[in-house]
Fold this sequence. Notes:
The structure is a single chain. With 249 residues, the chain is an alpha/beta fold. The chain has a single domain, classed as Alpha-Beta Complex (Spore Coat Polysaccharide Biosynthesis Protein SpsA, Chain A), CATH 3.90.550.10. Helix content is 37%, strand content 15%. A seven-stranded mixed sheet has the order 3-2-1-4-6-5-7, with helices on both faces. Strand 1 (7-13), helix 1 (20-25) and strand 2 form a beta-alpha-beta unit. It is globular, with a radius of gyration of 17 Å.
Amino acid sequence: MLNGKKICIVLPAYNASETLEMTYNEIPFDIVDEVVLVDDASKDQTTELGRKLGIKHLIRHEENRGYGGNQKSCYHKALELDADIIVMLHPDYQYTPKLIHSIVGVIAYDVYPVVLGSRILGKGAIKGGMPYYKYVANRFLTLGQNILMSQKLSEYHTGYRAFSKEVFDSIDIELNSDDFIFDNQMIAQLFYAGYEIGEVTCPTKYFEEASSINFSRSVKYGFGVIGVSIAYRLAKWGIFKNPIFNLKK
């Protein structure tokens, strides 16, 4: 716990057996209370390794549900465990668990209800090996999203995120896609619900075992991101309200 708040790390995994142990071993268990691993029908030994590491809350999807579907299982389980703060950490060791203290502290001491680990605030993206075309696409997409959504995030595409449990009382993640666009839909939902989002500078690592979508899926993701931002703007203008912006309260 930190400041009396229960902390749960969720690990949405797919073929993560080469990096799961490195990630898990850097989790700061002096403040982390629970770890949830969701294996999205991996073809490797991810589930077996999770058991070997002693991860108590381990869920395996027998059929692949996609990145967004995996996260839905992660968050539902964390809320079931009565977590006050939920940190989504990729088990591919692309983002360092050593930042969990800093990220969680922002929420635990009521500075922001949501925190993103940003690769762009510093020089972590290029230094860590992010392909240049992805960096450029990230910059252009983020600029367009900030304009359409009247926000000022340094990036919308990081896979390192932390949430106060209260935000899940307002947004319905089940309305979101089961694919990669889930992340952007969730950010749009949070802004639509009136939440502010903080950012912490985060280094990153790109290497062979780290997960990454290919070029064609990146293009599809890019168009999806712009679509989410346009849908947000239309909803804010009262022209058309996409169902993902139907708030719980």
